[in-house]
Amino acid sequence: MTTLDPDLLKTFLAFVDSGSLAQAASIVGRSPSAVTAQMQRLEDIAGEPLLVPQGRSRILTPAGEDLVGHARRILAVHREAWLALKGVRVDGRVAIGTTQDFADSGLPELLRAFAASYPRVRIELRVGRSAELAEALQTGILDLMVAMRQAPAPDEIGVLREPMMWLCSKRGLATRQDELPLALLDPHCGFREAAIAALDRAGRRYRIAAGSASLAGLRPAVNAGIALTLRTARFAHSGIVEAPRNFGLPQVPIAEFAIRLRQDAEPPAQDLAALFSGNLALAGAPS
């Protein structure tokens, strides 16, 4: 019997969750041509097309839609088996730092899987801004962190790449204004800097209509239609959607998040870091 390679299924789900092969390539860290080859290989195994062209993009065939649920279950079982092999008698402590992006979307699913196989390991979780988390890792307060990447670091074990996108209330903006109203985190923030740089390059007028030290503070401002913001798709839920094209917003770059592990971290932290590195890109990703 021909088997379904988990790497092929990860790439397939990256396409399903992101909506394009180009974005899937960023998520799984491969070139677009390599992703296309993977999808062709998966179709060869399936024996029928999984994707068909629609305009300039591609959509799932009925067979592709059927495969989605199976792929998620196969990868979940694969992840559980990998964790089970590590043993349930390990104890200790793992201190994790993360930005709010992943605390809301991604980490809960993986921490649950980890806890099932490591019931004696105590988890300490800190949610904060990228700069403060990096400092906590450097001083030994944290074993592991997931935060926005500023530059390559020797303790990186993985890099997640997710497209930035302009987001607003599904009801649109509350008022029409000549200046684009923005909701942004206080300095210093990579998304803030990317938004302002993109608008400046495009010659688009804007103003900071809402500011906050945390994502929890930005969400009500965006949801109310006071302003729009720049984040990833992980922020797009509970009434917040991608801004429509008629807003005429400029293109923005790919966001990079680093998974960093303290170099003298204990085995439980190393195992959790490996779990994050292999699964966080898809965990909690919007369908």
Describe the structure.
By secondary structure, this protein is of the alpha/beta class. It is built from 10 helices and 12 strands. It has helices at 6-18, 21-28, 32-46, 62-84, 100-104, 107-117, 130-138, 190-202, 215-223, 267-279, and strands at residues 51-54, 57-60, 91-98, 120-127, 144-148, 156-163, 165-169, 180-185, 206-212, 229-231, 240-242, 254-261. The strands form 4 sheets. It has a 5-stranded mixed β-sheet, with helices on both faces. Strands 10-7-11 form a 3-stranded antiparallel β-sheet. The protein has a two-stranded antiparallel sheet with strand order 1-2. A hairpin with a 2-residue loop joins β1 (51-54) and β2 (57-60). The radius of gyration is 20 Å and the shape is globular. The protein starts with 5 loop residues before the first helix and ends in an 8-residue tail after the last helix.
Number of distinct helices: 10
- Envelope shape: globular
- By DSSP, the count of extended strands is 12
Helix content: 40-55%
What is the subunit organization of this protein? single chain
Main sheet: strand order: 4-3-5-12-6
List the helices and strands and how they pair.
Layout: H1 6-18, H2 21-28, H3 32-46, E1 51-54, E2 57-60, H4 62-84, E3 91-98, H5 100-104, H6 107-117, E4 120-127, H7 130-138, E5 144-148, E6 156-163, E7 165-169, E8 180-185, H8 190-202, E9 206-212, H9 215-223, E10 229-231, E11 240-242, E12 254-261, H10 267-279
Parallel strand pairs: 3-4, 3-5, 8-9
Antiparallel strand pairs: 1-2, 5-12, 6-12, 7-10, 7-11
Helix pairs in contact: 1-2, 1-3, 1-4, 2-3, 6-10
